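Supplementary Note 3. Input sequence used for the single-chain structure prediction.
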Amino acid sequence: MTATYTFDVFSSLDGFGAASGNWTGYWGKQGPELLDHRLGLYGEEQRMVFGANTYRAFAQMLAASTEESEVRDPWVTRMRNLPATVVSTTLEGPLDWPDANVVSGDAVDVVARLKEESKVPLRSHGSLSMNRALMAAGLVDRVQVTLFPVITGQTGLDPIFQGASDFDLELIENRTLDGHIQELVYRPTLHV
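The predicted structure, written as discrete structure tokens, is reproduced below.
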């Protein structure tokens, strides 16, 4: 039996994973329900999987944050303390992450092996290009999109699915958090 792999991503309505300008984290839309739900998701036993760029961004963001900043929300702290695999051909260990290892190689090969060997579910938050490749290879079991009620047409950064293959999506879970944030969980299949 193989481990379930979830691609977990935050998105604006127009499909961007982040924005520049005066937007704050969560596009300023977070509330207690979202933060409690995220903590619950990351309270479960699982292994994180990151690409090198996302790992670097998280490590830099956490190093520059204070205990009071929203960067250190309890779910982020919990995520940082989960075991993690960073797929990279450029990074070398040890990493500034409590229980992380670097695995060199092609992400498709690395994740296929992890899915076979892991006794716990796998989850990746971000790592857009890596997860697009994993989706194309049929290795992503769930795409979990947390959709924030904003359009970032002028300031959007990191288009989530730009350059991705075509997929049919089967909705398997959905919820509304804080009255305006949508969480949508899909099972993707390559559209042929």
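The chain has a mean pLDDT of 93. The first strand starts at residue 5 and ends at 12.
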